[in-house]
């Protein structure tokens, strides 16, 4: 499923125009992004939790040459599915 498919589903189920559904989805995604930028977690009960995670610097290998390379520290996003999502997927 892609973003336009989500917009269509939101528009149909919430009885909104596609423009309003697009706005709603964009606002939701923007707010999740802003919270993660502030290092806050986002908990959607039943669906799951998003959180910023720090990855430390480490040594890796260049896959083409096999030479060791230094990989710098970075911040990534983690997602932990909620109970209802796990159950829906495992049925």
UniProtKB/TrEMBL annotation:
Histone-like DNA-binding protein which is capable of wrapping DNA to stabilize it, and thus to prevent its denaturation under extreme environmental conditions. The keyword DNA-binding applies. Residues 54-74 are annotated as: Disordered. This is HU family DNA-binding protein. Pfam families: Bac_DNA_binding. InterPro entries: Hist_DNA-bd, Histone-like_DNA-bd_CS, IHF-like_DNA-bd_dom_sf. Belongs to the bacterial histone-like protein family.
